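Query structure, 528 tokens:
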């Protein structure tokens, strides 16, 4: 499921956001151009204006306060361009929040003729303006003069320039289609030989060049024909810098890329200067296959949450392979920093032949409560013990549904503590991982029957109390048992499975909301 695919990236992003949460200073900016909306006038405004960007915020949310002056500035700039910037206090208008599935703050939605899409731009005024300009304007700009070309060369984002025979021909159309689709690149088109030369293009039409400000500045498209597939793959391969330095600003381009494998190099500034040539050289071989990232250890604020996510101390230089999609697999690199060795590791990484690394807390010294504590390292011994029927709850310390479940789970374990064939266990899923555990939310409760440990575990579905889980165990235990369990009463209104909820394990917005909440020490989020 889509939510799960982005899971690990999302935890990482959220952890990052947590540490960079800033408390904004008192309002010393002018919000006159930000339109305030409520339930009564929302629909009217978004349907009577072609382009509207809406921010759903909560008054207590730190990220919203940080965004406010930037948003106000962008609103003033964009007002003259026919774009409305609006905001909704989602704690006051929770019905609107629900209608648009707002789970964290701030959430920005982009409305075109009343239809909305997520906003995926940055949070600085100029980034908002650039994103909106791109979404509301033509996707490709025509360069008519050398003066225009010089302006285009000043643009900070990567630019792609196509030289075509005619601005009306099929190649020009192919570039327009590409411009509509690709994020993070500004597209330009010209039919003028002199203009083309300004961008380093020769006399051949069609031709295309991609220019960046960073190392390896120029990439030239070398196919004879402008086919959609070849163009897309060229842009995907070349639009990112060879090595991206990890930050809140660059995180979306890393995690929302179609390239789902990453190298994360954790290194201090001096150390990186030594490794840089090797790392960049290796990166050239994996363009379009692996994103090469630098996590600068000198920038503690940014590095700390990423280190924590990978269970690293940050004391020494370390390279990790990471696949944020799927289940967020991690691969540790122990080789030396030579181009050959890195390439070798990269090829195995791409071919999926490396052994993943799973994080774990230390095995606790005592473990004699009725609910047994499982960590990554003790998973095999406890959960995969073939002689036991094992029920495992994977939880997160901050998850409200898990806290609600806890007394019931403890009660179940207490009632079953004399049944030797059954183990009731729990694992903190934020600090421990195992290849057999795939979770889509917290809590996830799964059952590993005795004698069938190689099979997929059975989901306990949505049973969330001692009676329901007891009934589930009675039905599924491989070794029959007797115990005095509370009687399970079928919920009245339901037709099929009883319904329970799991909190989105790693939903970016939700986690962000949660973290904001922690930072602000408030319970307001629950009202949503
Ligand atoms: C929309 O309604 C809200 C109250 O729900 C009000 O505060 C706001 O000023 C209204 N905005 C406009 C543009 O009329």
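Result returned for the query:
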């Amino acid at each position: 499921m889509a939510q799960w695919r982005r899971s690990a990236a999302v935890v990482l992003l959220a952890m990052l956001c947590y540490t960079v949460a800033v408390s904004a200073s008192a309002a010393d900016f002018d919000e006159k151009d930000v339109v305030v909306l409520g339930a009564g006038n929302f629909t009217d405004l978004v349907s009577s204006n072609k382009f509207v960007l809406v921010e759903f915020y909560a008054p207590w949310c730190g990220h919203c306060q940080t965004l406010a002056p930037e948003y106000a500035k962008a609103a003033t700039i964009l007002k003259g361009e026919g774009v409305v910037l609006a905001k909704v206090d989602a704690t006051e208008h929770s019905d609107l929040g629900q209608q648009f599935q707002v789970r964290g703050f701030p959430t920005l939605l982009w409305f075109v003729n009343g239809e909305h899409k997520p906003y995926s731009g940055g949070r600085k005024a100029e980034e908002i303006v650039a994103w909106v300009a791109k979404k509301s304007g033509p996707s490709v700009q025509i360069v008519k003069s050398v003066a225009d070309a010089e302006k285009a060369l000043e643009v900070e984002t990567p630019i792609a320039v196509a030289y075509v025979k005619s601005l009306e021909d099929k190649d020009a159309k192919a570039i327009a289609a590409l411009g509509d689709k690709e994020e993070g690149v500004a597209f330009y088109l010209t039919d003028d030989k002199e203009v083309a030369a300004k961008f380093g293009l020769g006399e051949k039409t069609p031709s295309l060049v991609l220019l960046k400000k960073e190392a390896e500045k120029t990439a030239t498209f070398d196919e004879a024909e402008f086919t959609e597939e070849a163009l897309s793959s060229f842009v995907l391969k070349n639009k990112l810098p060879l090595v991206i330095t990890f930050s809140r600003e660059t995180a979306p381009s890393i995690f929302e890329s179609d390239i789902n494998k990453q190298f994360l190099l954790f290194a201090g500034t001096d150390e990186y200067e030594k490794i840089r040539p090797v790392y960049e050289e290796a990166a050239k071989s994996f363009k379009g296959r692996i994103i090469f990232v630098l996590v600068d250890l000198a920038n503690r604020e940014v590095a700390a949450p990423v280190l924590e996510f990978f269970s690293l101390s940050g004391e020494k230089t370390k390279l990790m392979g990471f696949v944020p999609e799927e289940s967020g697999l991690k691969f540790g690199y122990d080789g030396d920093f030579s181009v050959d060795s890195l390439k070798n590791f990269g090829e195995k990484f791409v071919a999926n032949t490396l052994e993943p690394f799973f994080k774990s807390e230390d095995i606790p010294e005592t473990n004699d409560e009725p609910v047994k504590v499982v960590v990554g390292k003790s998973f095999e011994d406890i959960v995969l013990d073939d002689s036991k029927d094992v029920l495992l709850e994977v939880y997160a310390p901050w998850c409200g549904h898990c806290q609600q479940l806890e007394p019931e789970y403890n009660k179940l374990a207490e009632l079953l503590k004399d049944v030797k064939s059954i183990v009731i266990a729990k694992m903190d899923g934020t600090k421990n991982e195992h290849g057999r555990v795939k979770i889509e939310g917290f809590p996830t409760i799964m059952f590993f029957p005795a004698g069938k440990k190689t099979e997929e575990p059975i989901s306990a579905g949505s049973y969330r109390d001692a009676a329901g889980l007891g009934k589930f165990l009675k039905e599924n235990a491989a070794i029959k048992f007797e115990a005095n369990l509370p009687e399970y009463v079928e919920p009245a209104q339901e037709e099929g499975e009883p319904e329970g909820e799991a909190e989105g394990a790693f939903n970016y917005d939700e986690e962000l909301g949660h973290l904001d909440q922690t930072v602000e020490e408030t319970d307001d989020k629950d009202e949503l």
